[in-house]
C-alpha cells in the first residue's frame, strides 16, 4: 500500500464559458471516508460527475491507485472499480430487489444460480439493516428511503475500490441514515476509498474522516473532521453574505389580496403548513431535498391529488387538487423540471410565452394572430429576451433564457395573482440569475404574491422578504429578509432540536 | 404502487380461474356434458393464437408493441405452404428464418435509431401484407402435403395435438429462459425504466433486436402451423388475430406501459382467451358475445391502468377526509 | 442538465435552419423519382385518372384528417376506426326512412358520441389509447352484429343517392375531404383548442402542470375524429347501399398510414391536416402509377408499407434532439 487510492489533481471544468470547477485537488486514501461539502452551485456535482465517468474534465487528472485513469464513460469507470450512488436512482421499480442487485452486473452469470444469488442478496440486505425486505419483493413496493438503501447495497456489492455517494441520505429518515452510515463504515473498513457528498453537516462530521469544502468551484479547505465544527464548516461554505435585493415597497396591507394557506398536508411528504402570504412580498421556502418545501408549491399548483387543508385567495376557496382549478384561481406555477414539466421545447419562444393564455388572446374560441404576436413581443421585452429569437424553438436558447421564457409566460396577466417557483434559477448562469431575480422582484412590486422554494442559500437571502426554513415536512422557523445565513443553514440541515 | 405486483399475477390468475369455472359450468346451461373433444378444441384455439400472444406479450413486457406480428403470421403461413409442399419441415424452417429476419430488421430500426415501435411495426405490417399478397397473387394457396396436415392436428393423449403441444413447448421454453437467466429481469427493466437500465449497464439495444427477432420467429412459426392445419394459407388474416393476441397478452398481465408480465402469465392469458371462445361455441351463444366479453375484460384492464382515474379517486378521497386529521 | 447547459450556439442553429430539412430533401427526391415514372406511364396524365386518384383518396383521407388531430394530441392511434365507420353506416341506412337529414344527423351524432367517450377516457383518465380502442373496437363490432342480427343492413328508404352525386365529375366525398381538411387546419392553427392540442401532444406533463385543460382539449380532438369517421361511414353506406360488418375493411390502418406519410410524428405535438391530405394523395398516386403499370395489388400494398416506413424513419431522425 503506497500513497492514496484516489488523487484528484487540479481538476477544472466550465460550462458554456462559465467555470463550474476551478483547479480542485484532494486525495482519498484506502479506508478513508472523505466528505465533499459546499452549498448548491459550489461544484460538488461536477466533481462527482467527472470522478464517475459522466463528464470529461477540461484540465487536470484523476489518478487511481497510482495510475492516471481515463474515465471516458460510466462503464469504464465501473470497470476500474468506481461505484456511484447517484441522486437519480438507477433501481428499476418493476424488478425485485434481487433482480436489481444483479441488473447490469458484468460479473453476473447468464444463467441465474438462484440459491447462491438469494443468499448473497440476503447477506447484503442484512448488512444494510434491511432484514424486513425479501429478495423477491418488488422495488415498487418499497419506500423511497428503502429504494435508496437498495441502490447503495447494490453499489457496495460490486467489487468497487472507490465508492462515491452523492447525497445518499437526502430523502432518508434518521433511522435509515444510521443504516447507511453503518454500511459505509464497513465498506471503508474493507479498504475502499469513500467519497461522501452531503448537505447534512452534523452527519458529515460524525461519519467522515476528512472534509473538503468547495465554494464557487474552488477548494476552500481540506481538514480532518475532528478539527471542524458545524459552525466553522458553515463559515467556510458561506464566504461573504450575499447582497440582498431590497424592496422599497411596503407589503399590501389588504389581506383579501393575500394567499391564505391553512393546514396544508400531503400524506408522506408534508406534515402541516400554514402561511398567510401577502401581495407584494416574496416568500422563500428554504429546505433541502425532501424537506417538503417543493411539495408546498406542488400542492398549491394542484399537482398533489391527495393534498388536504384549505387555501384561500382573494376570499375565494382555491380548488387546489387539480391544476386546472389552481390555474383558474389565479395561481401560476414554475416547476423545477423545466424540460419535463415546464416548457414546450420544440415550440418557438413566442408560442411558449403565450402558451398558458391562448384563451385570452382573442374572441371566443379563436386566437387573434395580431394580438398573439404583440403579446409575445411585449412579454419578450418584459422578460429581457432577444426579440430576434421569438421564432426559434425554445430548445435552442441558453438555460437562462429558457428560464426567462418559463417565468415570463406567467407575467403581465391580470388574472394571475400568485406566482409559485420551485428552484427559480436551476441550471441558469450568473447573469441570467440576476435577471430572473429582478423579474421576480418586479412581479412582487406589481402586486403579485410570490412564493419560491430553493436549496440555494444565496438565492434565499437575495430574494426572500420572509424566509421559512423547512425540514422533514414541517416549517422549522420563520425569519424576516436578511436573516443570518448560518442560522438558516442550521435550520435546513439540522432542524431546531439539534442546535 | 402495491397494485403493481398483484396485478402481474392477479389479472391472469383471475382471468383464467373465471374462464375455467365458466367452462366447467357450461353443461349446466347446455344440458350436455363436456367431452374431451371440447378440451381438444379449446387447445386447438389456443394453438391458433398462442404464439402470436407470446410474441406480442414479450414486446409489451419491454415497453414496445409489435403490430407487425400479424403480417409475419400471414407471410410465415404463406411461405411455409409454398416451400413446404414437398417437405413440411423445410417449409417451417424457411418461414421461421424469414420471420426472424423481418423481426431483426425492425428491431434494429427501433433499437439503434430509437424510432417508436408502433409506426415502424405498422408500416412493416402493411408491407408484409403486400408481400403475402404478392407471393400468392392475392388468393388462398392450398397445401397439398396431406401427411403434414394430418400430423399436426392428430390427437395426442385425447386433448392435445402436436400443434398445441408445440405451442405449449414454446411457452415453456420462453418461461425457462426468462426465469432462469438474467434476460427476464433485463426485459422487464428495459420496459419498466429504460434510463435506469442503461445506467445500471444493461445493453438495451442488443436486447431489443433480440426481442423483435424472437417475436418475428414466434409469429412466423404460429402462421406456419396454422396453414399446415388448415391445409391452406390466407394472404390476409385481417387485424383480428393481432387484436385477440393483444387481449390475451393484456389478460396475461402485460401492459403497454411495459415492465410487467411473465411467460406463465401470458400462457394463462392465451388459455383464457381460447377457453372463452370455446365456451361460446359449446354453449351456442351468438358469435358476437366473444367480442363483447373481450371488450368487458379489456375495460377492466384499462381502468386498472389509468393514472388519471387513480388520481381522480384520490382527489375524492382527500376531499371527503375530515380536515383535522 | 447537460443539454440545458450546452445548448448549441445561436449561429449554428441559424445555419441549420437555413439548410433545407432532410424531409424536404427526401420529398424532393421522391418527386424527382416519381414524376418521370408517372408522366411516362400511359394514361396517367388524363383527367379521368386524376379523378380516379382523388376519388380513391377521399374516404381514407376523410378519416385520416380526423386521426391527425388525435395523433397530434399525443401518440394516440385508434384501432376502432373501421368498426365505428361501420356502425355509423348501419345507423344511417336503418334510419333513412325518417328522411336523409335526420338519418345523416343521427349517423354523425353516433360517430361523435361513440368516439368522444373514448376521448374522455384518454383525456381525463389517461387511459392507454391503444388498449382502450381495441376494447372499443370489440364492443362496437360486437354491438353492431348484435343489433343487426348479423345480416347486412340495407337502406330503409331511398334519398341517399344525392350523396353519390359527382358534380364536375368528382364524387361529393372529394369535396367533403377538401372542406374537412381546410376546416381541420383552421381549427389547429386558429382556435384556442387547436393550439392547445399541439402543446398537450408535445408535453402532456408540462401542459398539466401549467393548468391547461388537457382533458377537454383531448375530448375535442376525439370528437372531431368521430365526426370524420361518421362522414366516412355515411359515404360508405351510400356507395354500397347496404352495410355488412366488414364494410369499412382496412380503414383503420390505411388512415394511420396516411397520417404518418403526411409527416405527423406519432409522438404528438407536430403535424398538420393539409399534410395528411398530401399523404393520402401521395399514397393514392403511387398506387395509381403501380396499377397503371400493371403491378398487382400485393406490390401496391408492399410499396405503401415501405413508403410509410421510410417517412416514419425520416420524420423521426429529423425531429430527434
TrEMBL record, chain A:
The chain positions of domain ABC transporter read 6-241, 250-497
List keywords of the entry alphabetically.
ATP-binding, Nucleotide-binding, Repeat, Transport
Keyword ATP-binding applies? yes
Give an example GO molecular function: ATP binding
Q: Which CDD domains match?
A: ABC_Carb_Monos_I, ABC_Carb_Monos_II
Name by which UniProt lists this protein? Ribose import ATP-binding protein RbsA
Which source organism?
Answer: Actinoplanes auranticolor
Print the organism lineage: Bacteria, Bacillati, Actinomycetota, Actinomycetes, Micromonosporales
> Which gene is transcribed and translated to give this protein?
rbsA_1
From TrEMBL, chain B:
Q: Which domain of life is it from?
A: Bacteria
What GO CC terms are in its UniProt record? plasma membrane
For this protein, the parts annotated as crossing the membrane are 41-58, 65-83, 89-113, 120-144, 164-187, 208-230, 242-259, 266-285, 291-309
Q: Does the keyword Transferase apply?
A: no
- Localisation: Cell membrane
One molecular function GO term is: transmembrane transporter activity
Per the UniProt entry, what species is this protein from, by scientific name? Answer: Actinoplanes auranticolor
Protein's UniProt name: Ribose transport system permease protein
Automatic annotation (TrEMBL), chain C:
Membrane topology, as annotated, equals: Multi-pass membrane protein
Example of a GO cellular component annotation carried by this entry: plasma membrane
Q: Keywords of this protein's UniProt record, alphabetized?
A: Cell inner membrane, Cell membrane, Membrane, Transmembrane, Transmembrane helix, Transport
Q: Name one GO molecular function term.
A: transmembrane transporter activity
Q: Where are the transmembrane segments?
A: 50-70, 102-123, 130-148, 168-188, 209-235, 247-267, 298-317
Please indicate if the UniProt record lists Magnesium as a keyword.
Answer: no
What is the protein's given name? Sugar ABC transporter permease
Species this protein is from: Actinoplanes auranticolor
Amino acid at each position: 500500500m503506497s500513497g492514496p487510492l484516489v488523487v484528484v489533481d487540479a481538476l477544472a471544468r466550465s460550462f458554456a464559458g462559465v467555470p463550474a470547477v476551478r483547479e480542485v485537488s484532494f486525495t482519498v486514501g484506502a479506508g478513508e471516508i472523505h466528505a465533499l461539502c459546499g452549498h448548491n452551485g459550489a461544484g460538488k456535482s461536477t466533481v462527482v460527475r467527472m470522478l464517475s465517468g459522466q463528464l470529461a474534465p477540461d484540465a487536470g487528472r484523476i489518478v487511481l491507485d497510482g495510475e492516471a485513469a481515463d474515465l471516458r464513460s460510466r462503464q469504464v469507470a465501473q470497470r476500474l472499480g468506481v461505484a456511484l450512488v447517484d441522486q437519480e436512482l438507477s433501481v428499476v421499480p418493476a424488478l425485485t430487489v434481487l433482480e436489481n442487485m444483479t441488473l447490469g452486473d458484468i460479473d453476473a452469470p447468464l444463467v441465474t444460480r438462484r440459491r447462491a444469488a438469494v443468499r448473497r442478496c440476503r447477506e447484503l440486505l442484512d448488512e444494510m439493516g434491511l432484514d424486513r425486505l425479501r429478495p423477491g419483493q418488488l422495488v415498487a413496493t418499497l419506500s423511497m428511503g428503502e429504494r435508496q438503501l437498495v441502490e447503495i447495497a447494490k453499489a457496495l456489492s460490486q467489487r468497487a475500490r472507490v465508492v462515491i455517494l452523492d447525497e445518499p441520505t437526502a430523502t432518508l429518515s434518521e433511522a435509515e441514515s444510521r443504516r447507511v452510515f453503518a454500511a459505509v463504515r464497513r465498506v471503508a473498513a474493507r479498504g475502499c476509498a469513500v467519497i461522501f457528498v452531503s448537505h447534512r453537516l452534523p452527519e458529515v462530521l460524525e461519519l467522515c474522516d476528512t472534509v473538503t469544502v468547495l465554494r464557487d468551484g474552488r477548494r476552500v479547505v481540506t481538514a480532518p473532521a475532528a478539527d471542524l465544527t458545524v459552525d466553522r464548516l458553515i463559515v467556510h461554505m458561506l464566504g461573504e453574505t450575499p447582497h440582498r435585493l431590497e424592496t422599497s415597497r411596503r407589503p399590501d396591507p389588504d389581506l383579501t389580496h393575500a394567499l391564505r394557506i391553512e393546514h396544508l398536508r400531503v400524506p408522506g411528504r408534508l406534515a402541516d403548513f400554514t402561511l398567510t402570504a401577502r401581495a407584494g412580498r416574496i416568500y422563500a421556502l428554504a429546505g433541502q431535498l425532501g424537506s417538503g418545501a417543493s411539495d408546498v408549491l406542488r400542492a398549491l399548483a394542484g399537482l398533489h391529488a391527495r393534498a388536504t387543508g384549505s387555501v384561500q385567495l382573494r376570499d375565494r376557496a382555491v380548488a387546489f387538487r387539480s391544476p386546472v382549478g389552481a390555474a383558474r384561481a389565479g395561481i401560476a406555477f414554475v416547476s423545477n423540471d423545466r424540460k419535463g414539466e415546464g416548457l414546450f421545447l420544440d415550440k418557438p419562444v413566442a408560442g411558449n410565452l403565450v402558451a398558458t393564455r391562448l384563451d385570452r388572446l382573442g374572441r371566443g374560441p379563436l386566437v387573434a394572430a395580431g394580438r398573439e404576436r404583440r403579446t409575445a413581443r411585449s412579454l419578450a421585452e418584459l422578460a429581457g429576451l432577444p426579440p430576434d429569437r421569438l421564432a426559434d424553438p425554445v430548445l435552442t436558447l441558453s438555460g437562462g433564457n429558457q428560464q426567462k421564457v418559463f417565468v415570463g409566460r406567467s407575467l403581465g396577466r391580470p388574472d394571475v395573482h400568485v406566482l409559485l417557483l420551485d428552484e427559480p434559477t436551476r441550471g441558469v448562469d450568473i447573469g441570467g440569475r440576476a435577471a430572473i431575480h429582478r423579474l421576480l422582484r418586479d412581479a412582487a412590486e406589481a402586486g403579485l404574491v410570490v412564493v419560491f422554494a430553493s436549496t440555494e442559500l444565496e438565492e434565499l437571502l437575495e430574494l426572500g422578504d420572509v424566509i421559512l426554513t423547512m425540514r422533514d415536512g414541517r416549517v422549522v422557523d420563520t425569519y424576516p429578509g436578511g436573516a443570518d445565513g448560518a442560522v438558516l443553514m442550521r435550520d435546513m440541515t439540522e432542524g431546531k432540536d439539534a442546535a | 404502487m402495491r397494485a403493481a405486483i398483484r396485478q402481474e399475477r392477479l389479472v391472469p390468475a383471475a382471468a383464467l380461474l373465471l374462464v375455467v369455472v365458466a367452462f366447467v359450468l357450461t353443461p349446466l346451461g347446455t344440458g350436455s356434458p363436456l367431452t374431451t373433444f371440447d378440451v381438444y378444441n379449446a387447445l386447438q384455439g389456443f394453438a391458433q393464437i398462442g404464439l402470436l400472444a407470446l410474441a406480442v406479450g414479450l414486446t409489451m413486457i419491454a415497453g414496445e408493441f409489435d403490430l407487425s406480428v400479424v403480417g409475419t403470421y400471414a407471410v410465415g403461413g404463406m411461405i411455409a405452404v409454398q416451400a413446404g409442399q414437398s417437405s413440411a419441415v423445410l417449409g417451417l424452417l424457411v418461414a421461421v428464418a424469414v420471420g426472424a429476419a423481418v423481426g431483426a430488421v425492425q428491431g434494429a430500426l427501433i433499437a439503434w435509431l430509437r424510432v417508436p415501435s408502433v409506426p415502424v411495426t405498422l408500416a412493416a405490417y402493411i408491407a408484409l401484407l403486400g408481400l403475402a399478397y404478392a407471393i400468392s397473387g392475392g388468393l388462398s394457396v392450398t397445401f397439398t402435403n396431406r401427411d403434414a396436415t394430418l400430423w399436426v392436428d392428430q390427437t395426442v393423449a385425447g386433448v392435445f395435438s402436436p400443434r398445441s403441444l408445440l405451442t405449449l413447448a414454446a411457452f415453456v421454453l420462453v418461461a425457462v429462459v426468462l426465469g432462469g437467466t438474467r434476460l427476464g429481469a433485463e426485459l422487464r427493466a428495459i420496459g419498466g425504466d429504460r434510463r435506469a437500465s442503461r445506467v445500471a449497464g444493461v445493453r438495451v439495444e442488443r436486447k431489443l433486436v433480440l426481442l423483435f427477432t424472437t417475436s418475428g420467429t414466434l409469429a412466423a412459426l404460429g402462421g406456419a402451423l396454422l396453414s399446415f392445419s388448415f391445409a391452406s394459407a390466407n394472404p390476409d388474416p385481417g387485424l383480428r388475430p393481432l387484436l385477440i393476441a393483444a387481449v390475451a397478452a393484456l389478460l396475461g398481465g402485460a401492459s403497454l406501459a411495459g415492465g410487467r408480465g411473465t411467460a406463465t402469465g401470458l400462457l394463462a392469458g392465451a388459455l383464457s382467451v381460447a377457453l372463452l371462445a370455446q365456451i361460446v361455441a359449446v354453449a351456442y351463444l351468438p358469435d358476437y358475445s366473444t367480442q363483447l366479453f373481450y371488450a368487458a375484460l379489456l375495460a377492466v384492464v384499462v381502468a386498472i391502468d389509468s393514472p388519471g382515474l387513480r388520481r381522480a379517486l384520490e382527489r375524492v378521497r382527500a376531499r371527503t377526509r375530515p380536515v383535522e386529521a | 442538465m447537460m443539454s440545458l447547459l450546452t445548448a448549441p450556439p445561436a449561429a449554428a442553429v441559424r445555419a441549420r435552419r437555413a439548410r433545407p430539412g432532410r424531409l424536404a430533401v427526401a420529398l424532393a427526391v421522391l418527386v424527382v423519382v416519381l414524376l418521370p415514372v408517372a408522366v411516362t406511364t400511359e394514361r396517367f396524365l388524363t383527367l379521368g385518372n386524376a379523378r380516379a386518384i382523388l376519388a380513391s383518396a377521399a374516404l381514407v383521407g376523410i378519416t385520416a384528417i380526423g386521426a391527425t388531430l388525435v395523433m397530434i394530441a399525443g401518440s394516440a392511434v385508434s384501432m376502432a376506426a373501421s368498426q365505428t365507420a361501420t356502425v355509423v353506416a348501419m345507423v344511417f341506412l336503418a334510419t333513412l326512412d325518417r328522411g336523409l337529414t335526420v338519418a345523416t344527423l343521427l349517423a354523425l351524432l353516433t360517430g361523435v358520441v361513440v368516439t368522444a367517450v373514448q376521448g374522455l377516457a384518454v383525456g381525463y383518465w389517461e387511459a392507454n389509447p391503444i388498449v382502450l380502442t381495441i376494447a372499443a373496437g370489440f364492443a362496437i363490432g360486437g354491438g353492431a352484429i348484435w343489433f343487426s342480427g348479423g345480416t347486412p343492413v340495407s337502406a330503409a328508404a331511398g334519398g341517399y343517392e344525392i350523396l353519390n352525386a359527382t358534380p364536375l365529375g368528382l364524387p361529393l366525398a372529394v369535396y367533403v375531404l377538401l372542406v374537412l381538411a381546410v376546416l381541420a387546419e383552421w381549427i389547429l392553427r386558429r382556435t384556442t383548442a387547436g393550439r392547445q392540442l399541439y402543446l398537450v401532444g408535445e408535453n402532456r406533463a408540462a401542459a398539466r402542470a401549467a393548468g391547461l385543460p388537457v382533458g377537454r382539449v383531448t375530448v375535442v380532438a376525439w370528437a372531431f375524429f368521430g365526426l370524420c369517421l361518421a362522414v366516412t361511414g355515411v359515404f360508405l353506406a351510400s356507395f354500397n347501399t347496404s352495410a355488412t360488418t366488414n364494410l369499412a375493411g382496412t380503414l383503420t390502418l390505411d388512415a394511420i398510414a396516411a397520417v404518418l406519410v403526411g409527416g405527423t410524428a406519432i409522438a404528438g405535438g407536430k403535424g398538420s391536416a393539409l399534410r395528411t391530405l398530401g399523404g393520402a394523395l401521395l399514397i393514392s398516386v403511387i398506387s395509381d402509377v403501380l396499377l397503371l403499370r400493371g403491378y398487382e395489388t400485393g406490390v401496391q400494398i408492399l410499396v405503401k408499407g415501405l413508403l410509410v416506413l421510410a417517412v416514419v424513419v425520416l420524420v423521426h431522425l429529423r425531429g430527434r434532439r
